Amino acid sequence: MQIDLVKHPGGVFSPANETDLERLQRFKNGETYIAEIKLTRNPAFHRKVMAFFGFCFAHWCANRAGLEHMDEHSQFDRFRKDLTILAGFYVQTVRLNGEVRTEAQSLAYASMEQEKFERVYKALINAAIKHVFAGTTDPTILNRLQSFF
């Protein structure tokens, strides 16, 4: 399991977003767990990107019926991958049965330089405007969307 964490003074780590907070609830207090810690790229920018994904996901979910029975973390993960693919950052392969499979490129720190990550972010914004926020006229939503530019 991978969970994004933020380091606070005193050596305390906390989940970077609400989805991961819910996933941590299944761990028992006082137990010992082994974790591999990796530094993400520019943490402030990374938080901005994750907040952007969260904002887009919340807007997308509000316009969908039937999601209430889905695992939110899994659905959010699929949403992030699909938006990355729509932004043009993917790898295609051919399966044994001849089907073309499209997988989102990893946005992990080790997979991508900061400069490319910034290009991906701009493309994600454009893809979200086109596919998630198309037809949105609510000024509150549009102002919040613009805050990510």
Report the major sheet: 2 strands, antiparallel
The tally of strands reads 4
Taking pLDDT < 50 over at least 5 consecutive residues as the criterion, the unreliable ranges are none
Coarse structural class: alpha+beta
Helix content: 40-55%
Distance between the termini: 31 Å
Strand order of the largest sheet: 1-2
Coarse shape: globular
Strand content: 5-15%
Global mean pLDDT: 88
Gyration radius over CA? 17 Å
- The H-and-E topology, N to C, reads as EEHHHEEHH
Count of discrete alpha- or pi-helical segments spanning 4 or more residues: 5
Secondary structure layout:
Blueprint: E1 5-8, E2 12-15, H1 18-24, H2 43-62, H3 72-86, E3 90-94, E4 100-104, H4 114-131, H5 139-146
Description of the structure:
By secondary structure, this protein is an alpha+beta fold. Helices cover 46% and strands 12% of the residues. It contains five helices and four strands. The strands form two sheets. A two-stranded antiparallel sheet has the order 1-2. Strands 3-4 form a two-stranded antiparallel sheet.
In short:
The chain is α+β, with helices and mostly antiparallel strands and 149 residues long. The protein contains five helices and four strands; from the N terminus they run ββαααββαα.
